[in-house]
Amino acid sequence: MAASAVFPFMAGGAADGTKLPTGALALSDLTASPRFGLKGGGSAAWLTAHGISLPAVNHIGAYHGMRILRLGNEDILLLAEGAGEALAELKAGWANDAGPKGYSSWREEGWAWLRLSGPHAPQSMSRLCALDLRADRFGVDDIAQTRVGHIEAVTFRSQTGFDVLFDVTASVYFARTAAAAARHCTDFLIDTEGHA
Amino acid sequence: MKLLICPMNGPRNIDEFQSFGPVPAEPDPDRTADADWSRHLFRAENRRGIVVEWWRHVPSNYFFLAERDLVTNEVVRTFDPSERRDQS
């Protein structure tokens, strides 16, 4: 996989010229992927009324190919990687509704979305995040709202490693910090997944 | 490392939290003597015992309450604000 550039793209900006690491720890930038956040009173009721079964707080559900992240009672994030049409339909319905329906938390603009993958991804995460994210403690439908690489972040498991969502203005910092953590990883067998 | 138990997110490093100070008393200004009202406005309490404080878990922007012993700095318990509303 070729190294890709980092959001936000702006000539002369902080991210200009930065490449994401590849190799034993690879970062890929999903910031351009469709997503939609709702927050505030009425958010949960509106989504439920439109057929979405909401998971418990800090858990992940699914609806029409989208992942439904419950970040709080009234703070919900819809990730539509590969399900852009279903999300566009839902967003159009939300925009045309007079309410009460919560308000958009602008996660598609405010947050970067990076994916850690590769054989060193679990080891790198254990260096970046203080929480125990081993597979027997942190399942596929769990969400951790915590600090990753010293910045506030939302993280959860993906098929290839971990996805991390955080303030988009810190994307270059995060890419460099993850790459630095990966340099300290070893190929010796380290039990980061809780296997006996 | 100091740990605090967030009612929503579980045990976390203390540096993930922000303190917002004690839950203020809410005396009725019409039924409170001037001296007591003045004391309420301008003087900070400095007593021993358990205080109920507002705290925020920063990464999830979740506000909750904690009962803390002012002498030992031990956090007795943390709980969702809805529990307090239910009591009153």
UniProtKB/TrEMBL annotation, chain A:
Q: Which Gene3D superfamilies match?
A: Probable tRNA modification gtpase trme, domain 1 (3.30.1360.120)
Q: Extract the InterPro entries matched here.
A: TrmE/GcvT-like
Official protein name in the record: Sarcosine oxidase
From TrEMBL, chain B:
Q: Which GO terms describe its biological process?
A: tetrahydrofolate metabolic process
Read off the Pfam families from this record. SoxD
Any one GO MF term held by the record is: sarcosine oxidase activity
Q: Where are the transmembrane segments?
A: none
What highest taxon heads this organism's lineage? Bacteria
Q: State the protein's name.
A: Sarcosine oxidase subunit delta
Organism per entry: Mesorhizobium helmanticense
